[in-house]
Amino acid sequence: MRVVVFLAALMAMPSAWAVDNVLLIQLQPGGAYRVWHTEGESQLTYDEVMALEATARPGGGEEMATGAGPARAHETSDGVTISLSAARNDNFLLLDRDDCGHVRVWHSAGATNLPEDQITDIFISALPGGGKRVTAGDYQVKAFITKLGVTASLWSAKPK
């Protein structure tokens, strides 16, 4: 019975909870931002990600067939990126390992697309332990400085 109640409550949650809830923001040369998403249309299995990571080279590793089409892993200054040549929008993935070695996959395209002024506000609010909560459009955001850039946790803003 508790499972049924939990599933019913989960289905009743606002759709904003179902889309990206964390972004990775990286400052690029020239002052532009690169925004990575926790969710995207290109989905690879854990085994595919691990196999691609093992082949990563600075110029690109061996191309492999995956469930999302042909993929190639590249070593970069940020770590390993995976290029997906057949993907329409979400054609790059960034692999991030936490301190315990767990892999997080960041997507180059996702559902949460904020304007540059809001990304800038989020970026400058970040602190290592989490900055002051800011409002960005329909979201409340708390931003953290990490080794790859700024991670921003987003949740729906409640009307006042």
Shape category: elongated
Helix content: 10-25%
Q: Major sheet, described briefly?
A: 5 strands, antiparallel
User: N-to-C SSE series?
Assistant: HEEHEEEEEHEEE
What would you call the structural class? Answer: alpha+beta
Query: Helical segment tally?
Result: 3
Number of structural domains = 1
| Strands, count | 10
Low-pLDDT residue intervals, each spanning 5 or more residues: 1-18
Strand content: 35-45%
> How many whole angstroms does the radius of gyration measure?
17 Å
Q: N-to-C terminal Cα separation, in Å?
A: 35 Å
**What's the overall average pLDDT, rounded?**
87
Strand order of the largest sheet: 2-1-10-9-8
Descriptive notes:
- The protein has 3 helices and 10 strands.
- The chain is an alpha+beta fold and about 160 residues long.
- It has one domain (about 20-155).
- The strands form 2 sheets. Strands 2-1-10-9-8 form a 5-stranded antiparallel beta sheet, covered by helices on one side. The protein has a 5-stranded antiparallel beta sheet with strand order 3-4-5-6-7, with helices on one face.
- Strand 3 (about 65) and strand 4 form a beta hairpin.
